Amino acid sequence: MTGTIGKVVIARQRFARVWGLGDRKSPVAMTPALVTLEGDEIPIELSPFTSSLSSQIPASLSLRSNLPLSPPNFSENAPNWDVSLGHVLPPSMEEADAGEKAGLGGLLPISWQRMNFDSDLMDPEIDPQIIVLTDAPQLVNLPGKLGEALLTIKKKFPQSLIWTPGIAGPDNLPLLAWMGVDLFDLSRSRMACASNLLLDDTGPRNPNPELGEDSSMNSQLEAWRVSISKVRSGIKNGNLRSLVDACVLSSAKLVERLRRFDNLCSQHNGILSMIPSGNSFDSYSHNILSDPLVKDWEDFISKSYRAPENMNKCLLLLPCSARKPYSLSKTHQKFRDATRGLNAHEVMVTSPLGLVPRDLEEVWPAAHYDIPVTGEWSLDEVAKTQELLNSLIKNNSYEYIIDHSGMGLEVKDVHYIDSRLGKSATSREGLDQLSAAAKQVMSNINVPKISPTKRKIDMYKSVARKNMLNDDWLDDVILKGKPPRHKLEVNGKQIAQWNLERGGFSLAKASIPIMEQSNSLRSIDIIGNEKLKGDIHINILNDFDKEIKAGEYFLIYQNQSAVGLGRAIAPAWEWAGTPGALAKLHQKL
Amino acid sequence: MTVRKLAMTGEIQKGAKIHDLVKAPANTPWAIEKQQSWDGNLPATVYYTPEMTSDGKPCTAATVILRTKGCHWWWSSGCTFCGYFNDTRDDVTNENLHAQWEHAKKKLNNFEGMDMVKVYTSGSLLEDREIPVEFQQTVLSECHELGKELIVESRCEQLTEEKLQWATSINPKFTVAIGLEAYDDEVLKFHVNKGFTTKSFDRAVKNLQKFDIRVKTYLMFKPPFMSEADALDHIVEWISAVAESSDEISVNPMNIQRGTIIDRLHNDRQYRPPWLWSLVEMIHKAHDIIHPDGGTNGDEDQVSRLIVHPTAGGKIRGSHNCGSCDSEVVAAIERYAVSGDLLEFEGIDCSCKQTWREEISLERCLPTPLGISLPRRGDRAKVLRSA
Question: Could you give the ipTM of this predicted complex?
Answer without folding.
Answer: 0.91
